[in-house]
Amino acid sequence: MAASAPDRYAHPLSARYVSREMERVFAPAFRFGTWRRLWLALAEAQRDLGLDIPAEAIAQMRDRVDDIDLDAAARYERRFRHDVMAHIHLFGDAAPAARPVLHLGATSAFVGDNTDLVQHREAMTLVRDRVVATVRALARFAEEHRGLPTLAYTHFQPAQPTTVGKRATLWIQDFLIDLEEIEHRLATLKLRGVRGTTGTQASFLQLFDGDRAKVDALEQAVCRRMGFEECYPVTGQTYPRKVDQALLATLAGVAASSSKMAHDIRLLSHLRELEEPFEKDQVGSSAMPHKRNPMRSERICALARHVIALAADPAHTAATQWLERTLDDSANKRLAVPDAYMATDAVLALAANVAGGLRVNEGVVAANLDAHLPFMAMEAVMMEAAGAGGDRQEVHERIRGHALEAARRMAEGREGGLFESVAGDEKLAVSAEELEAMARPERLVGRAAEQVDRFVAEQVAPVLGRHGEGAGGGEVRV
């Protein structure tokens, strides 16, 4: 855990979980550095379009764009009770030739909201890369265990067998759905632009003496300088708060996929079929030395729950913005948006780590399946009898009676004897040898291994090929 002042609260996401790459996006240096880049882009575009912006002002702004004294900014903010005005004065101190023209025609939302959108872009891009890393690790796992039969569950009750690899494809598919959503969000994300106080561009129209073409050119130039293709067509004072709602809903989707996978791993850990990575000196319990708790999967579920809960914040904000804007969004956004990205980042670092280090206890997998194979074969018996002309419903009822009785005996700690019971039923006309053949695991998993191969080749490989190695899964810090 990072050291901190003993009498100051340390945010757990920053202290314990989030990667340095994601933390950087929401750190003061990135945020206020982006404010200055926006002011620089605005001044450069205004000068290019004929406003009297001195060349020395542009030069000083460029030279001092990252020279940010946060202590001085805090002093200014205590004086003005306004964060943007504090940084306008601070930048003016650093670039005195630019002081008269800084923030010309703009409102606080010019730097605040446009920076929010830049942060969304940078953070969501990192989330995308983390998802790709998780998919890559899971794909390797799925391919390795493509044909390993395992007991499948519905309602966490034994059901028709599947393979370990096929189960992993279900996790991958969820992440691919998330990835499609992420790519859509990134492709359609726009800048707020250069709009003035209530979005009418009146101040910029005045600066350019009513020349609408220059106002359009100004906005397009700033947009390009900040790396965006488009601005939102209309705004009030702020960009649409629906954007925050949509982006955090996307993060909640990633969290849901991660949590689903982690819950499955926790259940399979209880059955001793799977083990998540466990380091040599790792301690599972302070009281029970034998324990190997699925700590990483539990943490995924815990942090994912936080992301899912945070998705409600921007939905409420979008629903309650008054007219052209109200300020009850600001404090909420400062908390909800960074937390959602940082918690998602931590979730995905863990997800990639777990997926890359999963251990399958094949002997336990086989033993758990063997214990239930007689029951698993009963669907095949029913299909065989129906195919031979029998009454499917009557066969189902007879098999159900034998299966329930076998389950009762097993619950009492005795042998189930299901095969013997079914083989002795003349109306079912199936021998013990035939039942044994029907109960071979490779006959009961259907097309599971083939489905893994097709899914990886047709769905996963193109995605991994398109994204390359990416940023990886990130460090698991604690």
Which terms would index this structure?
478 residues; mainly alpha; two-stranded antiparallel ribbon; 21 helices; 4 strands
Short note summarizing the structure:
The protein is mostly helical and 478 residues long. 65% of the residues lie in helices and 4% in strands. The strands form 2 sheets. A two-stranded antiparallel sheet has the order 1-2. The chain has a two-stranded antiparallel sheet with strand order 3-4.
Layout: helices, strands, pairs:
Elements: H1 12-17, H2 20-25, H3 28-48, H4 55-63, H5 70-80, H6 83-94, H7 108-144, E1 149-154, E2 157-163, H8 164-188, H9 202-207, H10 212-225, H11 242-270, E3 274-275, H12 295-310, H13 312-319, H14 330-357, E4 359-360, H15 362-376, H16 378-387, H17 392-411, H18 418-423, H19 432-438, H20 441-444, H21 448-467
Antiparallel strand pairs: 1-2, 3-4
What is the strand content? under 5%
Structural class: mainly alpha
Order of helices and strands: HHHHHHHEEHHHHEHHHEHHHHHHH
- Major β-sheet profile: 2 strands, antiparallel
Query: How many strands?
Result: 4
The average pLDDT value, as a whole number, equals 91
Q: Tell me the span between the first and last alpha carbons.
A: 7 Å
Radius of gyration: 30 Å
The percent of residues in helical segments reads 55-70%
- The strand line-up of the biggest sheet is 1-2
Shape: elongated
Summed up, the helix count is 21
Parts with pLDDT < 50 across at least 5 consecutive residues: 285-291
